[in-house]
Structures are given as structure tokens and as C-alpha cells.
């Protein structure tokens, strides 16, 4: 135990020393947990909107830290709701993100019981059979199927926020557009939306889902940034009033 504590103390002292050297050298940086820095981009927007601790709804959360669009905010004191239908993946949130409300359900345009296709690469898990078959054509496998409860995004926002979260992240492999199209924007207007806007064909070629862009622009959002995989949108009125 003493050796373990000594090792931890050395690690803490080393981190402090490195931080001190960085400050003295004028080196600054922002750490990202997201796939392409989407969390840092969103953080920049919220800084401009003067929202220090934004609430969030992470739909298709996958992992508490890895490729996460919301863990950076959790680390900074924000809290929100994560949605992950895969029971095994969901269980990881209970420990690492215990301050959040972690839901082991699916989000879809309609409520009901649906089949979750658990793929050989779990970042590709999907509630869409069409999407699952596309992944199979690309060389992936359907490992198993799991029956899950699916609710609407409006119901989640009503029950857990009483309104809209500041930040909405959507990555559900095949149903992103359908979920956003079902969102009642007259009642729920997240300040920032991050959504996967790339779809890969059976050849592996990526194409942008322009219907998502059209939908959100019509709903009063402006495109703030694009990382090829994901696009971030900001509520135009919130941006104008910042």
C-alpha cells in the first residue's frame, strides 16, 4: 500500500511540475475526448454564450469517456443525461458517470419495443435493420440482437429537463435525421446540437446527409463547424443575443 501511495504522490508531483513548466513556457492547450474535437468546439461556443456548465443530452453515448462528446463537460462540473441501449456499454456509465442520469433505453421517432443490432464493432450498434445490413456488406458482423425499450426525444426532455438541455449530441447510426425531425423545436431548443452527418456506402465512401443540414437550418439553427464526421449547429437567436 505504501508503495502504491508513493507512486500516486510521485505521479501528482510530476503532473504539477509539468503544468508549472507549461504555464511558465506559455504553453496552453485543451484536452478533447471526442472523435474529432467536437467537445472542444462546443466548449468554445458555450464560452461565447457565457454558459459555464451546460446541461446535455447524449443520445447514443457509447462510452463514458472514449469518443465522448460530453465527458469534457462532465469533467468540468456539468451534468446531464446519457442514453445507451446496449446493456454492457450502459453499465460502464454507472461507475464513471455516476453524477449523470444514465438511461439504458433507445431513442427513436416513435416509442415501443425495438431490436438493437449489436455489431462486431460496437460503435456501429444500431436500431436500424437497414443500417445493420449495410455494415454487414462492409465486412462487419451482427453479434447479437437485443430487445430494448425506445422512447421519443421529446419525452426524455420533458421528464429529465423540463425543457431543453443546452447541448444535444446525437449519434445513433442510421436514425439521426428521424430523431431530429421528431423533435418539437417549438418546445425544445438546445443551444448547440452536434450530430453525425456522414453516411458510408457499401464501398466505404462517405457522403454528407444534406437532409439534416436542411432540417436544422429551417428550424432556425446555423452551421458553426464541421469535422467531416459530425456537424455542430448553434441556435441562431441564442447566437445573435450572446
Residue share in helices? 25-40%
> What's the number of extended β-strand segments?
12
CATH topology of the largest domain: the name is Rossmann fold
User: How are the strands ordered across the major sheet?
Assistant: 3-2-1-7-8-12-11
Largest sheet properties: 7 strands, mixed
Q: What is the level-2 CATH architecture name of the largest domain?
A: 3-Layer(aba) Sandwich
**Whole-angstrom Rg:** 19 Å
Low-confidence stretches: 1-8
The number of helices is 9
Query: Into how many domains do the coordinates divide?
Result: 2
Strand fraction: 15-25%
CATH class of the largest domain: Alpha Beta
Arithmetic mean pLDDT: 88
The CATH homologous superfamily of the largest domain is termed Vaccinia Virus protein VP39
Termini separation: 52 Å
Q: Give the SSE string.
A: HHEHEHEEEHEHEHEEEHEEH
Q: What would the principal axes of the Cα set say about the shape?
A: globular
Short description:
With 242 residues, this protein is of the alpha/beta class. The protein has 2 domains: 1-30; 31-105 and 152-240, Rossmann fold (3-Layer(aba) Sandwich).
What does this structure look like?
This protein is an alpha/beta fold and 242 residues long. It folds into two domains: 1-30; 31-105 and 152-240, Rossmann fold, CATH 3.40.50.150. Helix content is 36%, strand content 24%. It has nine helices and twelve strands. The chain has a seven-stranded mixed β-sheet, with helices on both faces. A three-stranded mixed β-sheet has the order 4-6-5. A two-stranded antiparallel sheet has the order 9-10. Strand 7, helix 7 (176-182) and strand 8 form a beta-alpha-beta unit. Helix 7 (176-182) packs parallel to helix 8. It is globular and about 45 Å long.
Amino acid at each position: 500500500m505504501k508503495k502504491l501511495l508513493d507512486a500516486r504522490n510521485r505521479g501528482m508531483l510530476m503532473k504539477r511540475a509539468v503544468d508549472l513548466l507549461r504555464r511558465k513556457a506559455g504553453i496552453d492547450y485543451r484536452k478533447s475526448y471526442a472523435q474529432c474535437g467536437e467537445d472542444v468546439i462546443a466548449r468554445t461556443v458555450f464560452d461565447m454564450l457565457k454558459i459555464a456548465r451546460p446541461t446535455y443530452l447524449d443520445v447514443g453515448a457509447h462510452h463514458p469517456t472514449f469518443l465522448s462528446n460530453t465527458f469534457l463537460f462532465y469533467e468540468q462540473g456539468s451534468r446531464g443525461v446519457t442514453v445507451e441501449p446496449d446493456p454492457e456499454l450502459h453499465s460502464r456509465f454507472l461507475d464513471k458517470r455516476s453524477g449523470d442520469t444514465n438511461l439504458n433505453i433507445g431513442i427513436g421517432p416513435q416509442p415501443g419495443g425495438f431490436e438493437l443490432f449489436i455489431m462486431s464493432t460496437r460503435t456501429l450498434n444500431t436500431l436500424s435493420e437497414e443500417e445493420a445490413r449495410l455494415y454487414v456488406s462492409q465486412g462487419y458482423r451482427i453479434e447479437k440482437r437485443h430487445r430494448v425499450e425506445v422512447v421519443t426525444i421529446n419525452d426524455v426532455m420533458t421528464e429529465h429537463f423540463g425543457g431543453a438541455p443546452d447541448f444535444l449530441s446525437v449519434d445513433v447510426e442510421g436514425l439521426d435525421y428521424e430523431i431530429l425531425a421528431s423533435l418539437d423545436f417549438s418546445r425544445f431548443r438546445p443551444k448547440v446540437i452536434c450530430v453525425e452527418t456522414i453516411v458510408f456506402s457499401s464501398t466505404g465512401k462517405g457522403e454528407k446527409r444534406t437532409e439534416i443540414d436542411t432540417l436544422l437550418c429551417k428550424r432556425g439553427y446555423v452551421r458553426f463547424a464541421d469535422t467531416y464526421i459530425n456537424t455542430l449547429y448553434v441556435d441562431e437567436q441564442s447566437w445573435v443575443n450572446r
